[in-house]
Design goal:
Blueprint lengths: L7 E5 L7 H8 L5 E8 L6 E9 L2 H11 L3 E2 L2 E2 L1 E4 L3 H15 L2
Antiparallel strand pairs: 1-3, 1-6, 2-3, 4-5
């Protein structure tokens, strides 16, 4: 079974100067964006240096990865990859735990 390519991207190693707006602007040349957001510290509201960008189509997400992964943005080398599905990760961890207890 072919694994479906996701439309949500994980962007890491972002500069402290990167904003939600500049993140959206950076990724917008590659296609229609549904959502672009930085993850912030709940207490200080300062960006944690990573975020997520969600595209309308898988092709647009692929183009963004190909063009931006390993590029320097705001003085920082950034990495762009397909975001992992949290549900899949949790399911895999629970399966491994169950197998270890048998």
């Amino acid at each position: 079974m072919a694994k479906r390519f996701a439309t949500q991207l994980f962007v890491s190693r972002l500069s402290a100067y990167t904003t939600d707006r500049s993140l959206r602007q950076l990724f917008s040349p590659f296609g229609q964006i549904k959502d672009a957001r930085l993850i912030r510290d709940p207490e200080t509201q300062r960006p944690k240096g990573f975020g997520f960008v969600t595209y309308e189509s898988e092709d647009d997400a692929r183009k963004a990865i190909k063009s931006l992964d390993g590029k320097i943005v705001d003085g920082r080398l950034i990495f762009v990859e397909v975001a992992k599905n949290v549900e899949d990760e949790t399911t895999n961890m629970n399966t491994e735990k169950a197998q270890n207890h048998e």
